[in-house]
Amino acid sequence: MKEETEKRRGRDGDNDATIGNIWAVGRRLTDILLHNMVQGFSISTFVIGKDHKVIFWNRALEKLSNITADQIVGTNQQWRAFYAEERPCMADLIIDGITERIPKWYVDKYHKSDLLDEAYEATDFFPALGKEGLWLRFTAAPIRDSGGQLVGALETLEDISERKFAELKQRETERELHGIIEGSPIPTFVIGMDHKVIYWNRALAKLSKLPAEDMIGTNQHWRAFYAKERPCMADLLANETPEIIQEWYKGVAKSKILEDTYEAEGFFPDLGEGGRWLKFVAVPIRSSQRVLMGAIETLEDITERKSMERELVENEKRLNSVIQGLSIAAFVIGKDHKVIYWNRALEKLSSIPAADVVGTNQQWKAFYSKERPCMADLLVDSALEKIPKWYSGKYQKSDLIEDAFEATDFFPDLGDNGRWLRFTAALIRDSKGDLVGAVETLEDITVEKTQGEVAKKEVKKKK
User: How many angstroms separate the CA atoms of 108 and 144, rounded?
Assistant: First the structure.
């Protein structure tokens, strides 16, 4: 009996030793698998035990931190990889069960993980990492054994610098763009693909009496210009329907300078007192990959210019009426010597209708058989020294009009037997005194000249 009991104890001892060996081998295999798994992570990772000492420090983290595993494993100096002075990493706070202290160290930078229980995530900038610092997104989670006991913590660190710098660059670009648009004296708005307003600058707020806060985020930009809802030009470009722009904007033109850009002018009766004339330009906004992202529209107040143009047209009409109403033949040329006006009296005198000569430089045909300058041409060219060559003994400087010359000459090709004309040429200057052309009037003095010649002959006979 005794011998049998001893044998059983021997067998049990051998079994216990065998189980112990199996457990040790299993634990060793687990450690090897865990080590290989952590080392195989492409994301920087470290693991600490309950004593805060580093158990694993993978190759990715070696490369990121320039600290090798044999320099850090077994120590509690994991902070050296990220901070200039000793302080807890997030994994340390989780080990100590003091997650309420996370806000102290990671204020406005962290949040609880949506995927892992008891895990926390954060994003921060680490100036000592890399050449110019690195942005890291890091996640710390507790490690528990099969019984649920805390045995350590794992922290992963993902380098998101490229994305973060791109985001910061984009924000900086957006701020610069906002500053440019906001500071522009030209009323401007920008819409996205959903037709909602992204930018509405101060100039447009002043012009439209609609503040940016009432417009941004809405698709009611039409209210600034129209009494009823209708598309603005930017909407048509955002819809990729430029072919129907002409249905909404008469006189629209495609820009000769910018691709896919359209320009138009219109009168908006509800803007300002008495309405406003606006020149508006719409341009599609595309990404670097040419993907359509929205449209920008600028609106230039051209009311003053339009008023000046209208006044100029009225002045031209009045001037034309005055010139056409003269009983004395007259024509006007520009700096380019081309005829601007050719009145009815001159049509009758020369037998050349205005339609045949206006816009040409052939005014000489009314007076000469060969091309040569009229006196108005010499004044336009400031070639006063040439007047004697063409009108020797026939001209004089006007006593009444500054920058004017008078002459008398016989034109054999005018009328049936030729005509005597007294003509005066004077410069035309604008309000600034700049030369813009010349006017020449021609008075038919044939009867007067003929009677004078007859009288002279009678006097000679009496003598």
Answer: 28
Fold of 169-301: Beta-Lactamase (3.30.450)
Residue 404: CB atoms within 10 A of its CB come to 19
Q: Please answer whether residues 152 and 143 qualify as being in contact, where contact means their C-beta atoms are separated by less than 8 angstroms.
A: yes
For residue 5, what are the contacts with CB-CB under 8 A and spacing of at least 6?
none
Question: pLDDT tens digits for the chain (463 residues)?
Answer: 555 555 555 555 555 554 455 444 444 544 544 555 556 567 999 999 999 999 999 999 999 999 999 999 999 999 999 999 999 999 999 999 988 888 999 998 999 998 888 899 999 999 988 888 999 999 999 999 889 999 999 999 999 988 888 888 877 777 777 777 887 889 999 999 999 999 999 999 999 999 999 999 999 999 999 989 999 999 999 998 888 888 898 888 888 777 889 999 889 888 878 888 999 999 999 888 889 999 999 999 898 888 888 877 887 787 778 888 888 999 999 999 999 999 999 999 999 999 999 999 999 999 999 999 999 999 999 999 999 999 999 999 998 888 899 999 999 988 888 899 999 999 999 888 899 999 999 999 998 887 766 556 655 666 5
Residue 155 β-bridge partners:
46, 140
Gap between the Cα atoms of 53 and 180, Å rounded: 53
In the block, tokens 């794992």 appear at 154
Q: What is residue 182's three-state secondary structure?
A: helix
Q: Residue written as tokens 């210019």?
A: 305
Cβ contact 333:346 at 8 Å = no
Burial class (CB in 10 A: 0-12, 13-18, 19+), 219: middle
The yes/no answer on whether domain 40-159 falls in CATH 3.30.450.20 is yes
Q: Is the pTM of this model over 0.70?
A: no
Please state the domain extents for the chain: 1-35, 40-159, 169-301, 308-451
DSSP 216: B
What is 308-451's CATH topology?
Beta-Lactamase (3.30.450)
Identify the residue whose tokens are 């002045």.
Answer: 315
User: 116 is written with which tokens?
Assistant: 């892992």
| Dist CA 463 CA 458 (whole Å) | 9
